[in-house]
Amino acid sequence: DTAVSQTPKYLVTQMGNDKSIKCEQNLGHDTMYWYKQDSKKFLKIMFSYNNKELIINETVPNRFSPKSPDKAHLNLHINSLELGDSAVYFCASSQGGGNTIYFGEGSWLTVV
Amino acid sequence: GIQVEQSPPDLILQEGANSTLRCNFSDSVNNLQWFHQNPWGQLINLFYIPSGTKQNGRLSATTVATERYSLLYISSSQTTDSGVYFCAVVTGNQFYFGTGTSLTVIP
């Protein structure tokens, strides 16, 4: 059983489209995250969310929005996709902010 | 924000060699974690080590929080150790990743 799972693993889409990446964790964790890994391999926090608080990295464009239907899911919705959004997006979770963090396998997004 | 720098940025080793990777951080942190990103992109937890020393097989890690650094030791390296090694520090309940060390182990 995969602890943190993301779908889709690969996504190729045109500029201007709206897309979502889904994330589910079965670890019972209360905090979930989205990270973006660019072509230089740098991992940057986009959002962290638990049932009390959403923390948004101020550098993230408001075209990106996290949606959490319940504690085990944190989906990433992206509006009006741009070429620069091409990257690998990782979902992660932890029990409490700052404890051991577990990553999903990543979603490779290519905007053409 | 906190700065997390890793060195060296790139490392090439002959199989069987030992290496030390370093992670420096600019401010006090609550916790620190080491990851290995394999060539397929998976991020694998290696150590959760806010302080002290831990060992797991050929890998060990030491964090000296008061001096704001952590070290990852790889002994008797194998080709499967290739990939990028990241440290991530926790401050204010947020994880911040270092710049990574790209390791290539050649047979």
Tags for this model:
heterodimer, A: mainly beta, four-stranded antiparallel sheet, 0% helix, B: mainly beta, five-stranded antiparallel sheet, 11 strands
Descriptive report:
The complex is a heterodimer of chains A (112) and B (107). Chain A has no helices and eleven strands. Chain A is mainly beta and 112 residues long. In chain A, strands 2, 4, 5, 6, 9, 10 and 11 form a seven-stranded mixed sheet that branches. A four-stranded antiparallel sheet of chain A has the order 1-3-8-7, with no helix packed on it. The relative contact order of chain A is 0.34. The mean pLDDT of chain A is 91. By secondary structure, chain B is mainly beta. In chain B, strand 4 (31-37) and strand 5 (43-48) form a beta hairpin. Chain B has no helices and eleven strands. Chain B is globular. At the A-B interface, strand 4, strand 5 and strand 10 of A face strand 4, strand 5, strand 9 and strand 10 of B.
In percent, how helical is the residue content of chain A? Answer: under 10%
* SSE-based structural type of chain A: mainly beta
Strand residue percentage of chain A: over 45%
Largest sheet of chain B: 6 strands, mixed
Helix content of chain B: under 10%
Oligomerization:
heterodimer
Supply Rg of chain A: 13 Å
Determine Rg of chain B (CA atoms, Å): 13 Å
How are the secondary structure elements laid out?
The complex is a heterodimer of chains A (112) and B (107).
Chain A: E1 4-7, E2 10-13, E3 19-25, E4 31-37, E5 43-50, E6 54-56, E7 64-70, E8 73-78, E9 87-94, E10 102-103, E11 107-111
Parallel strand pairs in A: 2-11
Antiparallel strand pairs in A: 1-3, 3-8, 4-5, 4-9, 5-6, 7-8, 9-10, 9-11
Chain B: E1 4-7, E2 10-14, E3 19-25, E4 31-37, E5 43-48, E6 52-56, E7 59-64, E8 69-74, E9 83-91, E10 94-97, E11 101-106
Parallel strand pairs in B: 2-11
Antiparallel strand pairs in B: 1-3, 3-8, 4-5, 4-9, 6-7, 7-8, 9-10, 9-11
